[in-house]
Amino acid sequence: MSVPPRRFSLPPLPAVLLAIVSVQGGAAIAKGLFPVLGAAGTASIRIGFSALLLLIVVRPRLGQLQRAQWHAVVPYGLALGSMNFLFYCALARIPLGLAVTLEFVGPLAVALAGSRRWTDIIWVVLAGAGIALIAPWSGHGLDMLGLVFALAAGAAWALYIVLSQRTAAVLPGSVAVSVGMLVAALLILPFGLGSGQLLHLTPHWLLLGSLLAVFSSVLPFTLEMQALKAMPTRTFSILMSLEPVAAAISGWILLDEQLTHSQWLAVGLIVLASAGATLTSAQEQTAVGNE
């Protein structure tokens, strides 16, 4: 009897790190699309292409999904779409580093709510200190509506983390992401079409939009769904503190944005918090396995 080949999958920690790098690379692409397509148009292209690619590759059997699975995946898709749309609305008004930093309030709240050991509090405090250092708090030229959009994106991100784990429990990761992306596209496309900026699409912008979909949605959300199957929610949330770091490094390499000394200190604090959270999680899993 032949044994079916096993699907390739990454361990949870490398999966999360690769997802973070992919998202920030996509953010650099998105900044190039904003002048032509705007936030709504860019979000529509990203989510629309992502949904199309995933439906073609995964081919989920929508008619065979059970009611409980729909009840899980629809809220997940709405949270996914809201998180992306609100973040792009913020990114169109405030700097990338500040948008990512404020958005992280959501995952940080999830980490605080789920902490059970005093060591978890230490990692959250370190991550919070790093975030405070990396954010430009001078207040000069900041758009208040952009700040509100970023905080709202953080709330949607927190909801996305919780709903991702619930959805992963009732659906295979690839199916959950593909159906969830379809729901997100149905939510966002009316805003993109209503803006009228999608009329400016050319083959060049369509190519960039497809790359944006792969790097910002298809790859990272699939990896995150995979990781959440084997990683505690609070650990995943603290690891997401690497997002501001990845944003700063992406801006430095791709957009020629320089880091200040305080920002480099923030990088160190956030990396330390992430490493500590990962170590704590590994110790907990080892202890459970030995019982």
From TrEMBL:
Belongs to the EamA transporter family. This is EamA family transporter. Residues 145-275 form the EamA domain. Keywords: Membrane, Transmembrane, Transmembrane helix. It is found in: Membrane. It holds the Pfam family EamA. One of its GO terms (cellular component) is membrane. It is a multi-pass membrane protein. The keyword Transmembrane helix applies. Gene3D superfamilies: 1.10.3730.20. The chain crosses the membrane at residues 35-58, 70-88, 94-114, 121-138, 144-163, 170-193, 205-223, 235-255, 261-282. Signal peptide: none annotated.
